[in-house]
Amino acid sequence: MSYEIDWVKSRSDLFPEKCAVIDSVTKDSWTYSELNERASRLAGLFLAQGVGKGDRIALFAANHISYFDFLFACLKIGAVFVPLNWRLSDDELQFVVKDAAPAVMGVQSSSIGQASGLQEDFYMIEIESNSYLDDFPAAGNLGDPGLAEADPLAMIYTGGTTGHPKGAVLSHRSIMWNAINTIVSWNLTDKDTTLTCIPMFHTGGLNALSIPILVAGGTVVLSPVFEPVQAVRDLIEYKCSIVLFVPTMYHMLAGTMDFKKAKFPDMKVFLSGGAPCPLGIYHTFSSKGLAFKEGYGLTEAGPNNFYINPRDALSRPGSVGKPMLFNSVKIISAEGGEAGTDEVGELYLCGSHLFEYYWNNEEETREAWKDGWFHTGDLARKDKDGYYYIVGRKKDMIITGGENVYPLEVENWIEAHEAVEEVAVIGIPDEKWGEKVVAFVTVKRGMNLQAEELEYYCKKKLTKYKIPKNFYTIDQLPKTHVGKINKNELRKRLDKVT
Q1: Which of 95, 146, 305, 435 has a CA positioned 20 to 30 A from the CA of residue 232?
Q2: What's the superkingdom here (predicted)?
Q3: CATH annotation of 399-497
Q4: CA 278 – CA 254 distance, rounded (Å)
């Protein structure tokens, strides 16, 4: 039996004149009726090019209306949307395109040269402006692709910091249940507006808020880049009620005079995701009387899995809250049983919002899925009241002299120093201890900070084995393509000098 999944058309039928998407640069806007018409027109073009169910359709663009055009066109005909990370090196991009083997690729005009150099065969659609679809014929009958819930709708490639990126296949079910779970757990409505600055080739830009807001009937404001001053102005101009940024973005935002002066009268909550958030950011927002909370997810899981009331986030800084309505969570200790109160273990997730499998990678899929639970590779703990805290990545845990050190605990304390801008703590091989703890620190402008001062500061709070053996002051911490601190790059830098 065919699975009717075209919610874009249904939303258009219900509220055709409601504003769905706004381009923050050009000020163009589109209603739900126009959004549906654009997707239908593009779907017709795909069919004319011989695209069939399961064929991959790639997009190489900064945040733009074309993301919704391509995703919703794929939804209508059973194709698979593959957003490409335009920040990848040529070799990395070549690997992803070869792995996905798209039949069609949409490319922004500024990137035509780079896309043309790819050694793959695909039909290219140039995206010159928001009106790139105007010359295409109106869509006729698109037919019935005969979809099932578990059929793939999107394939988003993971960061690949430890090897080649993996294509996480998200089904119609995955994306819809993430949206439903987010809407009912976070109380999203058609009155909500969000600003999407996080790159939409990343699940945080596409699935964390953009798709749930549209399913709920709200409005998504698209920005092609994150510029902190402009972001403050856009949040106010478009009366945004909820927004997601990564911690690095919040660091940049909080340092602007525009943020310090702003009131944000329409904002219900600021949400942080992508990486554990430094506790100093909580204080920045609470001191302005702004609601702030932290979320948790990853490409393979939603990315939304928890809910916390901003009031609880104030009293439990660092907590991501409790599981959302339609997913299950457990923490498994190193011994293999469920972890007790405040015991650290690996976080397992279960629910219809999870990915289906890794593209062309059966071995990694088997490793990730066991007995219906997805093994996240993240370490977490749960307090006596049922609130969850993300401790860090399992692979980032440091074992020094037989003792476990969780970098986030050390980072939160160092980051609280008045002179510290950002910090990253890693473990490196050591003959005596197995691993030793080291810290990389950036210092706030106009301030000085010596390693001896940081060591003395750490002794006030941290157990001796948790105190970094070395402190490295650098101008800027390296970041991944989506703004996370790149600890692998820091390890490589140390390898070059030791």
Answers
A1: 305
A2: Bacteria
A3: 3.30.300.30
A4: 13
